[in-house]
Design brief:
single chain, alpha/beta, Rossmann fold, seven-stranded parallel sheet, 7 strands, binds NADP nicotinamide-adenine-dinucleotide phosphate
């Protein structure tokens, strides 16, 4: 039986490329997406490459869809091995933090932190049963003059803390679960208006780098890992 991974936001961008790479490595991919037509297109595309894929509807801002997705997985794919929390929105990346309304901040936190937290929490029994892993796709949150998007960074800082804190909880409770995070680095996708430049990767390159780390056979519990394999040190704000 193929191993199974549920990837949120896998209908385009980096998520779709992680799905492709995991599929090429023999995994069955559960394509989690909010936009159904793009989700079904991604499934078709992967099928065409001989990859086993199915679509699962999920909107991380909608608790009902999170529970429905978990229900489908528990009833039809209870042998799920991995959850990848990839879906995210950037919020306004240019305006200063002090200009954000509470609703704008909530919107980003809802998609990038609260939704993934709820999905992770609901998936824990299944994943623990299977000695599973949770992978969060994230960004460096240290201070940088050239990169200071307030709501996006605040949300990913919370996601990184969730990664490290739950990892410690799992370890201390002796649970057979692993949680870690990977930072793909600048990648040309819709999230940044498809911006290009000398240091930008293609989504395909990012998907490959992420998958190589996931499948390297090592235990990464609690780590926030850069695409080049270096583990981030948040105590000192370096990455
Ligand atoms: N691009 C970069 O430079 C970069 C760098 C570091 C980290 N990352 C991280 O990589 C991950 C993927 O980003 P990307 O660059 O591939 O962006 P993207 O192309 O914009 O894809 C984002 C995905 O998230 C989904 N999504 C958004 N809101 C959702 C919601 N409420 N519920 C469910 N799905 C939702 C989108 O689905 P819909 O089709 O339904 O909108 C889409 O599939 C993110 O976590 C991002 O923070 C990106």
């Amino acid at each position: 039986m193929a191993k199974k991974v549920f990837i949120t936001g896998a209908n385009k961008g980096i998520g779709k490329q992680i799905a492709r790479e995991m599929g090429k490595n023999g995994w069955m991919v559960l394509i989690g997406a909010r936009n159904e037509s793009r989700g079904l297109e991604a499934v078709e595309e992967l099928h065409g490459e001989g990859i086993e894929a199915i679509y699962i509807h999920i909107d991380l801002q909608n608790q009902e869809t999170i529970l429905a997705a978990v229900n489908t997985i528990q009833s039809q794919h209870s042998d799920l091995d991995m959850l990848i929390n990839n879906a995210a929105i950037p919020g306004d990346m240019r305006k200063p933090g002090y200009e954000f309304t509470l609703d704008e901040l909530r919107n980003v936190m809802e998609t990038n932190v609260f939704g993934p937290f709820e999905l992770t929490r609901q998936m824990l029994p299944t994943l623990e049963e299977n000695g599973g892993r949770i992978v969060n796709i994230t960004i460096p949150i240290g201070t940088a003059d050239f990169f200071n998007p307030f709501s996006y960074k605040a949300s990913k800082a919370a996601l990184n803390t969730m990664t490290q804190s739950l990892a410690q909880n799992f370890k201390q409770a002796g649970k057979s679960l692993e949680i870690f995070a990977i930072m793909p680095g600048g990648t040309t996708t819709d999230l940044n208006g498809n911006s290009t430049g000398p240091h930008m990767k293609t989504a395909r390159e990012a998907g490959k780098l992420i998958t190589d780390i996931i499948l390297d056979g090592k235990n990464h519990n609690g780590q926030v890992i850069n695409y080049n394999g270096a583990v981030a040190d948040y105590n000192y704000g370096l990455f």
